[in-house]
Specification:
InterPro entries: LSM_dom_sf, MscS_beta-dom_sf, MscS_channel_2nd. It is found in: Membrane. The structure is a single chain. The protein has 13 helices and eight strands. By secondary structure, it is an alpha+beta fold. It folds into three domains: 112 residues, no CATH class; 126 residues, Roll (SH3 type barrels), CATH 2.30.30; 85 residues, 2-Layer Sandwich (Alpha-Beta Plaits). Strand 1 and strand 2 form a beta hairpin. Helix 2 packs antiparallel against helix 3, helix 4 runs antiparallel to helix 5 and helix 5 packs antiparallel against helix 8. The protein is elongated, with a radius of gyration of 46 Å.
């Protein structure tokens, strides 16, 4: 009867050469793949009634397969004799690969837990404030944990090489400046990592929040370990580092609630009655599906030299609905004024009256001995040709009509007179 030691002795005999080692490695890989398939089917059936476990199994399926294959190959490498060529280098590579596979599995597991929590709280509800809060915490914390796992795995992989470990120890022991330089160089990464933890805990922003950042209006589309992606209303993307939200002020329209109040401004003539406009506003809102029934206000908020300013306040469940509601209200009130009170639309006023009194100095008497009629005629001609005369500039006569004077001088002389 074969004992365990005898079986191991038989298994180690082919490892004395590379052909035999490759055959053993192929058998180990096949066994690992078969074990993975059988185990995956069993665990999938067990986890079918549990959505959280099903999501985790789906996420760790590939990392588990990679880990099993690396373990199978590692069995061949570590059991091979030291006399096999290049076996020392392969053992170092196997160690690094095993650390990488474990890091991959741990990071995917953290991401799987976060994704399972996210799927358990959908966002397609009327009041999704609590769901968005949970989404933000789960995604940011999961990605922060993944970053920490990757850093630990990378450090463990470096420590697997004795030469690298000695170099690192000597640098830390002999030159403390190296650590300071490395800290300064890694400041953006560490700053964003800490900022991500702060955002996950304090939550100044959440997924699907409506924010205004540097004059751009949009929704928080994604929060990664280093930046936030904001989907602007015109389908552009604004990428902002995580640390920026901790150090700079910004506007969050949905911090405590997704409900919002919108404003519509109208300008009408002073004579426009306000009561019919309030009735029309009530009629428009009664047929508007975007209105949530909370706020309905129409007030005169300003009076300029040209028109009255009317401000309308309306409320909705979220900003997207409020934008559509404001457009609906604005169009409805403008159509109402155009149809019922077109004479009260804003007008430009100007005074075009010509009934004004103009004072100007009379012309000086000329120093001449000409007859009076000739002098008057000369004065009239001079006055009419003067550009500064405001009456002459309008084409109005200022004295006796020259045509009448000419007609009088050419009339026939009555009988008995010279």
């Amino acid at each position: 009867m074969l004992s365990l030691d005898h079986f191991l002795d038989l298994a180690e005999r082919p490892l004395g050469s590379w052909p035999g080692a490759l055959v053993v490695a192929a058998i180990a890989v096949a066994f690992a793949v078969g074990l993975h398939r059988v185990g995956a089917r069993i665990l999938t059936r067990i986890a079918r009634p549990y959505p959280l476990m099903s999501v985790v199994l789906r996420y760790i399926d590939t990392p588990a397969l990679v880990l099993l294959i690396i373990l199978g190959i590692g069995f061949m490498i570590f059991e091979a004799p030291d006399t096999l060529p290049f076996i020392g280098v392969l053992r170092d590579v196997e160690t690094v690969a095993l650390i990488g596979a474990l890091t991959f599995l741990a990071a995917r597991s953290a991401g799987a837990v976060g994704e399972a929590i996210v799927q358990a709280h959908p966002l397609d509800t009327d009041d999704n404030l609590n769901a968005r809060r949970i989404h933000t915490q789960a995604r940011v914390l999961a990605r922060s944990v993944m970053v920490v796992i990757v850093i630990i795995g990378f450090g463990a992989a470096l420590m697997a090489f004795p030469s690298v470990r000695q170099i690192g120890a000597s640098l830390l022991a002999s030159a403390g400046v190296a650590g300071l330089v490395a800290g300064i160089a890694a400041r953006p990464v560490l700053g964003n990592l800490i900022a991500g933890l702060q955002i996950a805990l304090s939550q100044p922003i959440r997924l699907d929040d409506v924010v205004v950042v540097q004059g751009e209006w949009g929704r928080v589309e994604e929060i990664t370990g280093t930046y936030v992606s904001i989907r602007i209303w015109d389908q552009r993307r604004l990428i902002v580092p995580l640390q920026w939200f901790i150090e700079n002020p910004f506007t969050n329209w949905t911090r405590n609630s997704s409900q919002i109040i919108g404003t519509v401004f109208l300008y009408v003539d002073y004579r426009m009655p306000i009561a019919p406009l309030r009735e029309e506003l009530a009629r428009i809102l009664a047929h508007a599906p975007e209105w949530d029934g909370r706020v309905q206000v129409l007030q005169v908020t300003d009076a300029t030299d040209r028109a009255m300013q009317l401000r309308v306040l309306v409320s909705s469940f979220d900003s997207a609905l409020n934008w559509d509601l404001r457009c609906r209200v604005r169009e409805g009130l403008v159509n109402f004024v155009q149809a019922a009170y077109p004479q009260y639309l804003p007008r430009a006023r100007a005074d075009l009256s010509t009934d004004r009194h103009v004072d100007f100095a009379p012309p000086l008497e000329p120093a001449t001995t000409e007859p009076a009629a000739t002098a008057n005629t000369a004065n009239t001609a001079n006055t009419a040709n003067t550009p500064a005369d405001p009456v002459a500039s309008r084409g109005e006569p200022t004295g006796p009509d020259p045509r009448a004077h000419s007609a009088a001088s050419t009339a026939p002389t009555p009988a008995g007179k010279p």
